[in-house]
Amino acid sequence: MKKLMAANWKMYKTGSEAVATINEMAAILNGSAPEGREVVVFAPFTALEAASSAIKAINGASTGAENLYPAIEGAFTGEISPVMIKACGASWVLTGHSERRHILGESDEFVGQKTAFALQNGLRVMLCIGETLEERESGLLRNVLERQLKLGLKDVPAETPADALAIAYEPVWAIGTGKTATNDDIVETHAICRELMREIMGDKADETALLYGGSVKPANAGAILGLDNVDGVLVGGASLKADSFTQIINA
Ligand code: PEP
């Protein structure tokens, strides 16, 4: 399985800023993701079309949206459908990012609806899961991951190819805080995630990418990517600049 190197640009970058960053990445990478690596850039809706055109300059790279609404079209003011995302040239979408769960109040059930709908409509999905510090300290780590995975994957069609789905484990307390989980924490938690994935999806669990996210940067990316059960990284802050994200891609 190729390692998935994913950028989450959150609410940063206009279309022209996105293009400038991708062009810089393309120059540093000599027009191709390194062997054994696949790159995906999750960009804001307003930059998605421009980013999707620009990313063609990098072999092995694609774009994704940061959110979707689970309907093809309709009276859903302010929302975006998978058809619209694909029409922008993007092939991926994020679901369940902790900022959407905790700031925008998305429930596990809604995340599950979005995940299934996006897959049914031909997008690849990166489902994000992760516990808060309070949950971890109260011994609820496994319960939270189990609930988020079970409900997040509840209606995923059985025929979904393994490479259409990726799971990103991101401890909420490590996102945007500069605090990375220790390597031991990551190994222990990824083993729990993989075991839960096997319970839910059987053998396909071993072919489904399991990424770590939470303050990944050039200095720690190589070590994290070498850990058991880590099939890639999802990077926020350190993905905004071409030089730091390409150092991570090459780590
Ligand atoms: C994220 O947004 O998914 C993330 C992991 O952010 P950061 O790398 O900034 O912690």
Characterize the structure shown.
This protein is an alpha/beta fold and 251 residues long. The chain has one domain: TIM Barrel, CATH 3.20.20. Helices cover 40% and strands 17% of the residues. It contains 10 helices and 8 strands. The protein has helices at residues 15-28, 45-54, 82-87, 98-102, 108-120, 133-137, 141-152, 183-201, 218-225, 242-249, and strands at residues 3-8, 37-43, 61-65, 92-95, 124-129, 165-169, 209-213, 232-235. An 8-stranded parallel beta barrel has the order 1-2-3-4-5-6-7-8, surrounded by 6 helices. Bound molecules: phosphoenolpyruvate. Phosphoenolpyruvate binds next to strand 8.
Describe, in short, the structure shown.
40% of the residues lie in helices and 17% in strands. With 251 residues, the chain is of the alpha/beta class.
Structural class: alpha/beta
Largest sheet report = 8 strands, parallel, barrel
Spatial ordering of strands, largest sheet: 1-2-3-4-5-6-7-8
- List the total number of helices: 10
The low-confidence parts are none
> Hetero groups bound?
phosphoenolpyruvate
What gap, in angstroms, lies between the N and C termini? 17 Å
Over all CA atoms, what is the radius of gyration?
17 Å
Can you identify the CATH class?
Answer: Alpha Beta
Topology, pairings included?
Blueprint: E1 3-8, H1 15-28, E2 37-43, H2 45-54, E3 61-65, H3 82-87, E4 92-95, H4 98-102, H5 108-120, E5 124-129, H6 133-137, H7 141-152, E6 165-169, H8 183-201, E7 209-213, H9 218-225, E8 232-235, H10 242-249
Parallel strand pairs: 1-2, 1-8, 2-3, 3-4, 4-5, 5-6, 6-7, 7-8
Helix pairs in contact: 1-2, 1-10, 5-7, 7-8, 9-10
The protein binds phosphoenolpyruvate.
Phosphoenolpyruvate is lined by residues 8, 10, 170, 175-176, 213-216, 234-238.
